[in-house]
Design brief:
The complex is a heterodimer of chains A (about 775) and B (about 475). With about 775 residues, chain A is α+β, with helices and mostly antiparallel strands. Chain A is built from 21 helices and 29 strands. In chain A, helix 7 (about 200-210) links the parallel strand 10 and strand 11. Chain A is globular and about 100 Å long. Chain B is about 30% helix and about 20% strand. Chain B is globular, with a radius of gyration of 23 Å. By secondary structure, chain B is an alpha+beta fold. Chain B has helices at about 25-30, 100-105, 115-130, 145-150, 165-170, 180-185, 215-220, 235-240, 275-285, 290-295, 300-305, 310-315, 320-325, 425-430, 435-450, 460-480, and strands at about 5-10, 10-15, 50-55, 65-70, 85, 200, 205-210, 225-230, 250, 260-265, 265-270, 330-335, 340-345, 350, 355, 360-370, 375-380, 395-400, 405-415, 420. Chain B folds into three domains: about 10-185, Ubiquitin-like (UB roll); about 195-255, Uridine Diphospho-n-acetylenolpyruvylglucosamine Reductase, domain 2, CATH 3.30.43.10; about 260-480, Uridine Diphospho-n-acetylenolpyruvylglucosamine Reductase, domain 3, CATH 3.30.465. The chains are: A alpha+beta (about 775), B alpha+beta (about 475). Chains A and B meet through helix 2, helix 4, helix 19 and helix 21 of A and helix 1, helix 2, helix 3, helix 5 and helix 16 of B.
Chain lengths: ~775, ~475
């Protein structure tokens, strides 16, 4: 355990946050020649552009130019499939699809100019649902399949069978800082982009390709983001291209800051899913066979939807061993914004499907769903449907512990009693678990690099490809450096992420930011320590008057030489409390003195570290492999109360128990858990994306799109981590935390379903249908129908 | 007459004239004053990232009462006479204010974008608690509980933390170390300057703030396009989203009589400049159901800016105060060229966003009676989210019974038609009916027959219809002893 793992280290930007000094894109000082950029987008979901007339817009005072598709060198992009134009040219495929780029020398002119643009579009029939897309066979990518055992045979032999469909809507990221970037033109055609992006390397590449530059002519810098949640993984790129286009054309800095309304109209969301399920089980509720057909709404372009589908398929087992399982997955194309990564990726959609199945089995068998879950939970060395063996399995323990700590069985009795008596309200209770696979399922993305620069005054600057979006990765990286050199954390600065320091990086995504980049930092620190240790040994062997400080200038003593080959690493000194100690002689030198010796002896105080997760693979064609480095696990128990008159829900209590190994920073991880849970709660309850019949999103700002507010969190909210756990595989025994707890909010949704089921005990159709989000309208209708 | 507005910003005097006065306050702060700690997310008062502290100009009492507002929908011209404090005004050089320190040690910020807004809202909570106790120093506060804190944070959205660490931070503030804004930035008396009216004419538009009602009426009569601005919690949104570019702006903030908040016997009179927060203070011990309802009305920031008159005059069919005031039989007091007149609120709405008001007329006050002990008065609102949400429907019921029979009935519903409805026909039909299940069922039927709600993002027509009936059912169970 490290010092930082013991004491409370606040977020490295905390003081800047609270004083208002923390700089986000639009807080950057405006240069006198800077211009402002905005996007004009399609008002129509599907159609052919006949005519665009922006002559009136150009007459607005301050408007400098309007650009379109032909102004770009390359007008196509896509992370997996190259299928999306930066600017629609002939065909528009969703309401919100960018068509024109407007630039003006004053902010106020942009909105006025947009209103003066007239466009004529020959409208084509839009496809606006998974149902219609399936009917028209409008798909993105091939159907994928994962198969284990013989589900057809097992289904036929199962004592009980249930089938159905579950629908899940999308979710807007609602990061508080909307998409934003500034492009600065530099000499000789170079461009420097400051972007609110999770993926600076991709921004660099997209800008270069779109403008016909080489990668080495573009630098992308990310200081921090005001939230991202996956929404700035791929979709920050186009906005950087737009700003860069303007800056290149006008040779002036160009600032593009989206309004929340435009951001919500233009950018993609969490993929909606409609999943068909068929389950076979025995009298005890043990699942013997499961068939899932997953269909997602990819929107108009592929973006990351096929990878998201893959993760949904890989999480369709969630925490449960299913001996015979078939999962198919097909991304559908619709005329809505191209959907994209969102915390959990496909995970929530796979997990919810199987958790719903378990709730229905419990209702059908009139048993407690907790028992059903425990009897199906993975045991050590079970194999998943994709063939990965479950090792270091903590799931049974998590379920046992939370059943006791949440007082589940006593509360179950109380709730049943309450529901028998109350005329106005119904209560529900449910437990769910998560087994979330850590790593990018696309292997090559699992790599990271870090640059560590140590200065002779004992301070360190560290840079990695990780981007800070609030999750605290920079704090954890600073802790790793401070710990490695055993120096005070105030002597470590995490520098803005920049492609000129850390090249060819992956997105900060898949919960892997700290794992991958933290390890790369460790590697870099070890290299420097290896060099310093050799210097220390030699310096400690010299008399004081032969030390570098005395002789470096005069050149009267031989220079210290060291072995640079790390594989010869045979000398290891202890770095303790700002000192470096020879464990044999117990001689020591201060860290700062040693740095000066090293510098004066021409020993590099900088190092570059590289890391990749070892030994992971997944064959997308066969659906088999070992895609995950390890799993993050947790359980949650939630209780809700539903108003029978209105369908209003209150979450009375949620208990969370997670295994995060040895958390790198317990307080930061706690914040990740509560934040992710509440974000999941929003997806599952109040966040309702409402489109009209023409495919226009009508909920494009917080007045209509309701993310959870302070009163919506569980009244009693207990978060706990398993003690004395250690993840031997990963950085300092820790486990990734960013995404997994979002899916624990499924316990709230399951509790709502449980509450409604109480109401239906005596009805002919005892299994209530409930979709996502379970808005109060959906709940009231489920009660009534 | 002045041609500039005057206010204090973090203790520094500002005189602003010309086009800058038409900027949303947040733009003035961020782009003209380089105070970028104030963030803008939604530009519609729904997220609180732009929250600042404001002591408004008030004629009678010299103020020095700071409270939170949304600077994104406040207009710069509305700062005339005020004193304003932003997040940058809290820390002393390198030393954080106690609220800021508490946020740091409790991990209250993650991405940090909402953090300044939350800092200001917690600051507001402490300021209001100090005011409630009428104590000059911070140390005499009541101990905060979680419910207090949550009630004061409903106007701020955070997408990262799940709020837990922010609530912890608010509860963990060391009151002994907290400095009240009113002590750090005592409001400077600008009453001499505020005695003269303001007229600022620019190419973009004109701003006029007279000191008498008659001047206001004459101006409104002369320029029919005139828009009255007060809290601008709705107009500010319309401007930001490009739906409105006002050419003639009239502000009534220099007219003393419009600040009335008066109780005479059982009659309450509220002036056009009185905010909903002030209304809540006035009714909190007198009309408990209205006090409770105001807790779920918008957010502290909105209630600190928005006025009762504004909420009614906006004529929105889902305005939350309209059914309440209709069920209280409120009257609208109007001033025009021909003097003062009064109209019942229930006859005040002619159609969607259309008022029964002449072009020279100005609503000066609202008057209503405090319900007596016999009256069963309750207000309901169903919205997708409990706090800071626009109603799917709202309803107010005000009944009195005699021997278990309905003696008087007032039913007002919003969100079910183009205007808020007072269901007079239904009321007339049910007088004298005995309270029993059959009666309640028949009233529910009468209600659902009388309304024709729309389907939109906030709910389907079917859902709204069911809700209207169910809310009455709920009222009957809770209040009529069914």
């Amino acid at each position: 355990m490290t010092s930082a793992q013991i004491s409370k280290i606040p977020h490295e930007s905390a003081k800047a946050h609270v004083t208002g000094q923390a700089e986000y894109i639009d807080d950057r000082m405006q240069l006198s020649n800077e211009v402002f950029v905005d996007v004009y987008y399609s008002p129509v979901a599907h159609g052919k552009i006949r005519k665009i007339d922006y002559s009136e817009a150009l007459k607005i005072e301050g408007v400098l130019a309007i650009y379109q598709a032909r102004d770009l060198h390359l007008n196509i992009w896509g992370n997996i499939f190259h299928d999306q134009p930066y600017l629609a040219d002939e065909l528009v495929q969703y309401v919100g699809e960018p068509i024109l780029i407007i630039t003006a020398n004053r902010r106020g002119a942009l909105l006025l100019a947009k209103k003066k643009i007239s466009i004529e579009i020959d409208e084509l029939a839009p496809i606006l649902s998974i149902f219609e897309a399936r009917k028209h066979k409008l798909f993105i990518g091939p159907e994928r399949k994962i198969l284990s055992g013989d589900p057809e045979k097992a289904l036929a032999e199962a004592p009980h069978r249930l089938k159905g469909t579950i629908k899940m809507q999308g979710q807007d990221h609602f990061y508080l800082e909307s998409q934003a970037c500034i492009a600065y033109p530099k000499e000789d055609g170079q461009i420097e982009i400051h972007s609110s992006s999770q993926h600076p390397s991709e921004v660099q590449q997209m800008v270069a390709e779109a403008l016909g530059l080489k990668f080495h002519q573009v630098v992308c810098v990310v200081k921090r983001m005001g939230g991202a949640f996956g929404g700035k993984e791929s979709q920050a790129g186009p906005f950087a291209v737009y700003a860069a286009l303007v800056s290149k054309k006008l040779n002036r800095p160009a600032r593009l800051i989206l309004t929340k309304d435009d951001d919500m109209m233009i950018t993609g969301k969490r993929n909606p899913f409609e999943n068909e399920y068929e389950v076979g089980f025995d009298d005890d509720g043990k699942i013997t066979a499961l068939k899932f057909h997953l269909y997602s709404d990819g929107g108009a372009y592929a973006d990351l939807s096929t990878a998201i589908m893959e993760r949904a398929m890989l999480h369709s087992d969630n925490a449960y061993y299913i001996p015979n399982m078939l999962v198919t997955g097909q991304v559908c194309k619709t005329h809505t914004a191209p959907n994209t990564a969102f915390r959990g990726f496909g995970g929530p959609k796979g997990m919810l499907t199987v958790e719903n199945v378990i709730e229905e089995i419990a209702i059908y068998l009139k048993k407690d769903s907790f028992d059903i879950r425990q009897s199906n939970t993975y045991m050590q060395n079970d194999k998943t449907h994709y063939g990965q063996e479950i090792k270091d399995n903590i799931l049974p323990e998590l379920y046992q512990k939370i059943r006791i700590s949440s007082n589940y069985d006593v509360r179950r009795k109380e709730i049943s009693e309450f529901n028998r008596n109350s005329k106005t309200h119904i209560r529900g209770l449910a437990a769910t678990a998560i087994k979330f696979g850590i790593s990018f399922t696309t292997r090559f993305l699992n790599q990271a690099n870090a640059l560590v620069n140590v200065f002779p005054d004992g301070t360190v600057q560290v840079s990695t490809g990780a981007t800070e979006m609030g999750q605290g990765v920079n704090t954890k990286i600073a802790q790793i450096v401070a710990d490695s050199f055993s120096i005070d954390i105030t002597n470590v600065r995490v520098m803005p992420t920049s492609t000129e320091k850390n090249a060819n990086t992956s997105a900060t995504a898949a919960s892997s930011g700290s794992d991958l980049n933290g390890r790369a930092v460790e590697v870099a620190c070890e290299i420097i320590k290896f060099r310093l240790s050799q210097v220390a040994l030699q310096v400690l062997g010299r008399s004081q008057n032969l030390r570098g400080k005395k002789v470096a200038g005069s050149g009267t003593a031989p220079e210290i030489l060291i072995d640079e080959n790390l594989s010869n690493q045979n000398c290891k000194l202890n770095f303790e409390n700002n000192n470096v100690i020879d464990p044999v002689s117990q001689n020591k030198i201060s860290f700062i003195d040693l740095l000066q010796e090293a510098y004066l002896n021409r020993i590099s105080l900088s190092a570059y570290g590289f890391y990749r997760y070892p030994g992971i693979y997944f064959n997308k064609e066969t659906g088999q492999g070992e895609p995950f480095f390890y799993f993050t696990n947790g359980t949650a128990v939630s209780e809700v109360i539903v108003d029978r008159y209105t369908g209003e829900v209150k979450v009375l209590r949620s208990d969370i128990l997670m295994d995060l190994g040895r958390p790198l920073n317990k307080e930061i991880d706690m914040g990740q858990v509560s934040g992710a849970f509440v974000q999941g709660l929003g997806w599952l309850t109040t966040e309702n994306l409402f489109y009209n019949e023409k495919g226009v999103l009508k909920t494009h700002s917080p007045s209509t799109y309701k993310i959870p507010s302070v009163h919506d969190i569980p009244r009693i909210f207990n978060i706990d981590f398993i003690e004395n756990s250690e993840n031997k595989k990963n950085l300092k025994g820790s486990k990734a935390v960013g995404e997994p707890p979002l899916m624990l909010a499924i316990s709230v949704w399951a509790a709502i379903k449980n509450a409604i089921a109480y109401q239906k005990i005596n009805s002919s159709n005892i299994i209530p249908k409930l979709s996502v989000p379970a808005t109060q309208e959906a709940i009231l209708m489920s009660i009534l129908k | 007459m002045r041609n500039s507005i005057i206010f204090y910003l973090n203790g520094v005097k500002k005189e602003v004239s010309g086009q800058d006065i038409f900027l949303p306050l947040s733009s003035y702060l961020r782009y003209e004053s380089f105070l970028t700690g104030t963030k803008v997310v939604c530009a519609e008062g729904d997220c609180g990232a732009c929250t600042v502290m404001l002591a408004k100009w008030k004629p009678q009492d010299r103020g020095n009462n700071y409270f939170s507002i949304n600077s994104c929908i406040a207009m710069t011209f509305a700062m005339d006479g005020a004193s304003l404090v932003t997040v940058e005004g809290l820390a002393e050089a390198e030393k954080c204010a106690e609220v800021q320190s508490s946020m740091i040690r409790n991990f209250g910020g993650q991405c940090g974008f909402c953090t300044p807004g939350f800092i200001m809202s917690i600051t507001n909570l402490l300021e209001q608690k100090a005011n409630q106790k009428e104590c000059a120093t911070a140390c005499a506060y009541v101990k905060l509980n979680e419910q207090n804190v949550k009630n004061y944070l409903t106007g701020n959205l955070c997408r990262c933390t799940g709020y837990t660490p922010i609530i912890k931070a608010a509860l963990d503030v060391d009151i002994k170390k907290h400095i009240l804004i009113k002590d750090k930035y005592p409001q400077v008396d600008l009453s001499v300057q505020m005695r003269s009216s303001v007229l600022i004419s620019t190419e973009a538009g004109e701003y006029f703030a007279p000191t008498t009602l008659i001047e206001a009426c004459q101006y409104k009569d002369k320029y029919p396009e005139t828009i009255l601005f007060s809290g601008s919690t709705d107009l500010g949104v319309q401007i930001n989203k490009g739906y409105l570019q006002p050419k003639k702006i009239l502000s009534l903030h220099l007219i003393e009589e419009l600040y009335t908040q008066q109780i005479e016997g059982t009659a309450i009179t509220i002036g056009a400049r009185a905010t909903l927060s002030e209304l809540q203070k006035l009714v909190q011990d007198r009309i408990p159901s209205l006090d409770r309802f105001l807790n779920i009305f918008a957010s502290p920031q909105i209630k600190n800016s928005a006025t009762l008159v504004g909420n009614l005059a906006n004529a929105s069919p889902i305005a939350d105060m309209t059914p309440v005031m209709m069920a209280l039989d409120a009257e609208v007091i109007i001033y025009g060229k021909s003097g003062k007149s009064t109209k019942p609120l229930k006859d005040f709405y002619l159609g969607y966003k259309k008022l029964n008001l002449q072009k020279d007329e100005i609503i000066t006050h609202i008057q209503f009676q405090i319900p007596d002990a016999q009256q069963k008065f309750e207000n309901y609102k169903v919205s997708q989210r409990r706090d800071l949400d626009i109603s799917t429907i709202n309803a107010s019921f005000n009944f009195s019974l005699n021997n278990n029979k309905i003696k008087t009935a007032r039913i007002a519903l919003g969100g079910v038609a183009a205007t808020t409805l007072r269901l007079a026909d239904v009321e007339n039909k049910i007088i004298g009916a005995e309270i029993n299940i059959q009666t309640i069922e028949s009233i529910k039927k009468l209600i659902t027959d009388a309304i024709h709600p729309l389907t939109d993002a906030r709910g389907t027509s079917e859902y709204r219809t069911i809700l209207a009936a169910n809310l009455f059912d709920k009222f009957a169970k809770e209040q009529l002893g069914l």
